[in-house]
Amino acid sequence: xxxxxxxxxxxxxxxxxxxxxxxxxxxxxxxxxxxxxxxxxxxxxxxxxxxxxxxxxxxxxxxxxxxxxxxxxxxxxxxxxxxxxxxxxxxxxxxxxxxxxxxxxxxxxxxxxxxxxxxxxxxxxxxxxxxxxxxxxxxxxxxxxxxxxxxxxxxxxxxxxxxxxxxxxxxxxxxxxxxxxxxxxxxxxxxxxxxxxxxxxxxxxxxxxxxxxxxxxxxxxxxxxxxxxxxxxxxxxxxxxxxxxxxxxxxxxxxxxxxxxxxxxxxxxxxxxxxxxxxxxxxxxxxxxxxxxxxxxxxxxxxxxxxxxxxxxxxxxxxxxxxxxxxxxxxxxxxxxxxxxxxxxxxxxxxxxxxxxxxxxxxxxxxxxxxxxxxxxxxxxxxxxxxxxxxxxxxxxxxxxxxxxxxxxxxxxxxxxxxxxxxxxxxxxxxxxxxxxxxxxxxxxxxxxxxxxxxxxxxxxxxxxxxxxxxxxxxxxxxxxxxxxxxxxxxxxxxxxxxxxxxxxxxxxxxxxxxxxxxxxxxxxxxxxxxxx
Length: 533
Description:
Blueprint: H1 2-55, H2 82-102, H3 104-107, H4 115-121, H5 128-134, E1 138-139, H6 141-151, H7 153-166, H8 168-185, E2 189-190, E3 194-195, H9 209-277, H10 283-318, E4 328-329, H11 341-351, H12 353-376, H13 423-488, H14 494-529
Parallel strand pairs: 1-4
Antiparallel strand pairs: 2-3
Helix pairs in contact: 2-9, 6-9, 7-9, 8-9, 9-10, 9-12, 9-14, 11-13, 12-13, 13-14
C-alpha cells in the first residue's frame, strides 16, 4: 500500500504542475475583469457627476445691478426664478418716475412752487381766460413762474416725451416675457422621467435674467436723461420768464420816471416862455427846453413799444392768443445779497442739468458696453464647456452633403466661427465713451467759468445799483433843486437847470436799470447753476 500511495502522490503533483498554468491565467483574467469593471464604474460615476453639474448649470450673474435696488441678490447668481423679481424692479422704477412727474411741486429740481400757489393756478393750465385774468391788472413773479410751468409748450412737450420714455420699461420686459413663455410652452418632456433639462441650446438662454437687469439699467439711464431734458426745459422757460419780468418791471419804472421828467420840462418850458415874453430869457434857451421835451417824448414812445414786445414774449411763453392783454408786474425790489462763489460752484457741479445729462449718457454707454461685452465675450466660468445636450448616434466621418463650401469657413466648419463679429462696433462705442468723458470735463470747466462770470456780473450790478440809488441819484436831485432855486433868483442860467435836470433823470434811470440787472443776472446765474438759491 505504501508504494501505491507514493506513486499516487507523484501523479497528483504531476497533474498539479501540468494544470497550474491554465488555472493561474483564469485567475488573472478574473482579476483583470474586476479591475476593469471598477474603473468603468468609476468613470461612469464621474460622467454622471459631470452630467448632473451640466444639467444644473445656471448662467452666472452678468450685470452689476445697483446695490440700492438689489441689496439681497447682488451676491448670488441669477436663476430662472429671478425673472419676476427683475420684472417687479423695472415696474417699480417706472412707477417711481411716474409719481415724480405727477408731483412737480415736490420734485422739480430747478424751481419748486408752493403747493397753495400751484393749486390756485392749476385751472389756468387748460383755460386761457383764467390765465389772462391771473395776469390782470398786476401779476407777481411767482404767478408768472407757475403759469410758465403749467402752460409753456416747451415744458409740456418735454413732459410728454418723458412720459413716452417711461414706456421703454415695458419694451424691455416685452420681448423677454414672450421668449420666456415660448420656452415654457415648447419645453420637451421625457415620459416617465420628467422635464428634460438643457434640451435647447445654451446659447438660446444665455444670459437671461442678467441681461434683463442690465437692460433695465440702460433704460433707467435713458429715463434719467429724459428727466434732465425736462428739467432743462423748465429751467429755460422759468429763467426766461424771470428775465421778462424784470425787463417789464424796469420798463414800467422807466415810463414813470420819464413822465415825471417831462412834467418838469413842461413847467420849465412854461417858465422860460414867460421870461422870454418879458425879455428876461433868450429864444435859444426856450428852444433848448423844447428839444429836451421832444427827445423825452420819443423815448417814452420807444418804451411803450418795447413794453408791447415784452408782453408778446410773455404771451409766447404762456401760449396765449396774440390779442390777449396782460397786466404789468408788481413793484418789488430784487434780492441784493451776494452769494458765496464757492458754494454756488459746488451747487453747479452737482445740480447743473447739462452736467447731469452728460453723466447719465456716460452711465448708459458704460452699461451698453457691458452688455455688448457680455454677449460677445462670455466671461470665464467654472462650468467647463457649455455644449448642447444632443446625443451622438453616429460615429466616423459625417458628410455634410454639400457640393461646395465657402472659402471663408471651409467644409464642415461652423458658419460663425468668430465670437466677436461685433467687436468693431464695440470698439467704436468705447471710443465714443472716451469722447463723452472728455466732453464732461470740458463742460465742467465751462460751467466753472460761467459761474464765475455770472457771479461777477451779479456782484457788479449790486454794487452799481447801490452806488446810483444811495449816492448819485440823491446828489443829482439836490444839485437840480439848488440850481432851480438859483435860476428863480436870477443867478443861474436856464441851461444849467436843464443840464442838472437831465443828470438827475439819467441817474434815476440808471438806478432802475441796475435793479433790473440784479434780477436778470441772478436769473442767469441760477440758470447756470441749475437750481434756485
